[in-house]
From TrEMBL:
<keyword id="KW-0597">Phosphoprotein</keyword>
<keyword id="KW-0902">Two-component regulatory system</keyword>
<dbReference type="GO" id="GO:0004672">
    <property type="term" value="F:protein kinase activity"/>
</dbReference>
<dbReference type="InterPro" id="IPR036641">
    <property type="entry name" value="HPT_dom_sf"/>
</dbReference>
<dbReference type="Pfam" id="PF01627">
    <property type="entry name" value="Hpt"/>
</dbReference>
<feature type="domain" description="HPt">
    <location>
        <begin position="28"/>
        <end position="119"/>
    </location>
</feature>
<dbReference type="GO" id="GO:0000160">
    <property type="term" value="P:phosphorelay signal transduction system"/>
</dbReference>
<dbReference type="InterPro" id="IPR008207">
    <property type="entry name" value="Sig_transdc_His_kin_Hpt_dom"/>
</dbReference>
<feature type="modified residue" description="Phosphohistidine">
    <location>
        <position position="67"/>
    </location>
</feature>
<protein>
    <submittedName>
        <fullName>Hpt domain-containing protein</fullName>
    </submittedName>
</protein>
Length: 119
């Protein structure tokens, strides 16, 4: 049984907030769709890069990389993934290996949830 403390509620958050995505794209639906597709296309490689930082216990690198990805998650209107990425970034800034591992699992789960929602 995993006893790692996790921040609850990622699954309770919206996978996709169309209104927020549209607002971020200045009302341009085509741009909002393009931004989301770009995020989705890059997620598998980004998840692997995050996994590599975690495996190397590179907490500063993990925090910075999660922060960079959050730029895209904020613009794309994907609240659950954005919140999970934020939690991972904060855990990495603390250098807490258990929270980082749990945070990575949450990010991977929310990325998968987003992919399934957008298929």
């Amino acid at each position: 049984m995993n006893t790692t403390a996790r921040l609850p509620g990622f699954d309770a958050l919206q996978t996709r907030d169309h209104a927020a995505a549209l607002a971020s794209a200045g009302g341009d639906a085509a741009l909002a769709a393009e931004l989301l597709q770009t995020l989705l296309a890059g997620l598998p490689a980004e998840i692997e890069d995050l996994r590599a930082c975690l495996a190397e216990s590179d907490w500063p690198g993990l925090a910075e990389y999660a922060h960079q990805i959050r730029g895209a998650t904020r613009y794309c209107g994907v609240p659950a993934l954005d919140a999970a990425m934020d939690a991972l970034e904060r855990a990495a800034r603390l250098g807490d290996p258990l929270r980082c591992a749990a945070g990575f699992d949450d990010v991977a789960a929310q990325a998968q949830r987003l992919r399934e929602t957008c298929d």
